[in-house]
Design goal:
3 helices; 93% helix
Length: 107
């Protein structure tokens, strides 16, 4: 089946069988076949590791960007909440000053 072929190919069993056939026919020696197989294994492991590193790097970058966006939104929310408080304080100060002036004029 396709699944079995995929698993055998991923693990290198198909390549090993192919190289063993070459040894039987005399196309290459056992040492050459083993060297080719080991080179293939190392290359495959390097490709897998590179892909995994790329995925984890992309994931970390996406998380960092999301965190930065969340911080920006949070700062904007805090600034928006703080702005009305400042305005109310200024209005209260102006009202107090007006009341004080009115009281001073009455005396």
């Amino acid at each position: 089946t396709d699944t079995a072929k995929g698993l055998l190919s991923y693990k290198g069993a198909l390549l090993k069988n192919h190289l063993a056939g070459g040894v039987k026919k005399g196309a290459l020696t056992e040492e050459q076949a083993e060297a080719k197989f080991n080179a293939w294994l190392e290359d495959k492991a390097a490709k897998i590791q590179a892909k995994a590193d790329g995925l984890s790097e992309a994931d970390a970058k996406a998380k960092a960007e999301a965190l930065a966006a969340e911080k920006a939104v949070n700062e904007a929310r805090i600034a928006a909440a703080a702005a009305p408080v400042v305005e109310e304080t200024e209005e209260a100060t102006e009202e107090t000053a007006t009341e004080t002036e009115a009281t001073n004029e009455e005396e």
